[in-house]
Amino acid sequence: MKIIVQTTLFIALFVSCSTQNSTASEKDKAVMFKDWTLNLEDMVLVEDLGKEPLNVVWTVDSETTLWDNGGIFTGDSFIVYHEDGRVFGQIYVEPVMEEPNTVVGSMIILKDFSGNEVLWTCNPKPPFFYGRNAKVIFDEEKSLLFVAVFHPIATGSGLACLDAEYGHEIWRADVEQLSVGHSQYKNEVFIRLIDDKIVMAGDEAGGYYLQVFEAVTGKRLFSGTNKTWDGN
């Protein structure tokens, strides 16, 4: 009798878990950032979470930031890993100089693990958005690199998709900027590949934004910006 009861309870628990997992998978995926919750299915900000159950797949505010170490920046490279843990290479963002002391943008360079051998350089015309730091997503299956470029003490950011093997630019996103004038500033950018979309969040001293782009084409699907000060 005891065995029958245990078996019945196990079956009931299994059915309950399966139903819950099925229900969770049927919910629309969403991203949370500050006071925004974005439904990634219909690209609409959700006003009342109680009326629209969602599967939150990314909470941006939980990400580790450059400023967690007190704003002490130790370098301008980003190590890219294979799924099995091997190092694919290091991404460097370096300035493009049109003439001495005149920076016109950024180039993206892939070096080996040591940082000594250049594997490829992507320096298109016009150059990428000027920045010092990068956030990188490596889609190993499709051999793509999604690179967000920004400067930790200046407004704005850029986003591009590159061929991981040769560094060719595939697309460059039209990122909506806050364009905040300032004298003292801080800036952080986060990106995440969710299904067929690149979600980009920017947290700046003068405001914040959340934008979504097609991973294949770079087409902007959503943009929400909140500019809180001019900071002249």
SSE layout:
Blueprint: H1 2-26, E1 28-33, E2 36-39, E3 44-45, E4 54-59, E5 77-81, E6 87-99, E7 102-111, E8 118-122, E9 133-139, E10 144-150, E11 157-163, E12 169-172, E13 187-194, E14 197-204, E15 207-214, E16 220-227
Parallel strand pairs: 1-4
Antiparallel strand pairs: 1-2, 2-3, 5-6, 6-7, 7-8, 9-10, 10-11, 11-12, 13-14, 14-15, 15-16
Any overview of this molecule?
- 11% of the residues lie in helices and 47% in strands.
- It is globular.
- Strand 11 and strand 12 form a beta hairpin.
- The relative contact order is 0.13.
- With 232 residues, the chain is mainly beta.
- The protein is built from one helix and 16 strands.
- The strands form four sheets. The chain has a four-stranded mixed sheet.
Radius of gyration: 21 Å
Sheet with the most strands, sense and barrel status: 4 strands, mixed
Residue fraction in strands: over 45%
Q: List segments where confidence is low: pLDDT < 50 over at least 5 consecutive residues.
A: 5-24
Instruction: Determine the mean pLDDT.
Output: 88
Give short descriptive properties of this protein.
47% strand; mainly beta; globular; four-stranded mixed β-sheet
In short:
This protein is mainly β and 232 residues long.
